[in-house]
Amino acid sequence: MKKIFYFSALVCTAIAFTACSSSKESAYRKAYEKAKAQEQQYAQPVQQQEYQAPVQQAPVTPMVQQPVQQTTTVVDNTPVRRENVDVVSGSGLKAYSVVVGSFGVRANADGLQTTLRNAGYDAQIAFNSERNMYRVIATTHDDRSSAVSTKESLKATYPDAWLLMK
Questions:
Q1: Does the CA dihedral 121-146-90-133 come out positive or negative?
Q2: DSSP states of 61-116
Q3: How many angstroms separate the CA atoms of 136 and 101, rounded?
Q4: C-alpha dist (Å) from residue 165 to 74, 84, 94, 137, 158
Q5: Which 8-state DSSP code applies to residue 49?
Q6: Where on the phi/psi map is residue 90: left (φ > 0), alpha (ψ -120 to 50), or beta?
Q7: Are the beta carbons of 138 and 98 closer than 8 angstroms?
Q8: Low-confidence residues of the chain, pLDDT below 50?
Q9: pLDDT tens column, 14-31
Q10: How far apart are CA 77 and CA 44, in angstroms?
Q11: Could you give the C-alpha distances from 164 to 63, 86, 154, in angstroms and in order?
């Protein structure tokens, strides 16, 4: 009795799978034919279009930049951070340094240092072991006023620039 039951179940399963495959095949064939018809429908108007002359645009007038106004900075109000750092790459730090980037990965700091050196800065990398951060220093100065003026000039390119006092 069990053999007949298993045999009939096997036959029913085989019939079910063969019936599904023909319906899937016909559904795929219908979808393919529909897509082909749409492709031909849209392809015909493209071939029948006439040449149209390009549209002429009005000339673009260049914008004139206004001269930048020089602002005086008050040196006493500029915040300065004090950190213990060790120079990793560079000639050495003076009393005040302008930091333009901080990275946890040394390779990122090296990339910014290369960019700054290509721009003409004597860029250096210092490591803060307490925070495990590499500080990229664009310039270093003996006095605070020259460091502040350099930081303000770098603010256009590096808006997060800050002063470091060693």
A1: negative
A2: PPPPPPPPPP----GGGS-EEE---EEEESS---SEEEEEEEESSHHHHHHHHHHH
A3: 5
A4: 17, 9, 8, 12, 19
A5: P
A6: left
A7: yes
A8: 46-47, 68-74
A9: 776 666 555 667 777 888
A10: 72
A11: 38, 13, 15
- C-beta atoms surrounding 41 within 10 Å: 9
Please give the single-letter amino acid code of residue 34: K
* pTM reported for the whole predicted model: 0.55
Tokens found for residue 35: 């897509």
- Measured CA to CA, the distance from residue 124 to residue 108 in angstroms comes to 13
Which residue carries 């298993």 as its tokens?
Answer: 6
**The residue type at 5:** F
- Residue 53 DSSP code: P
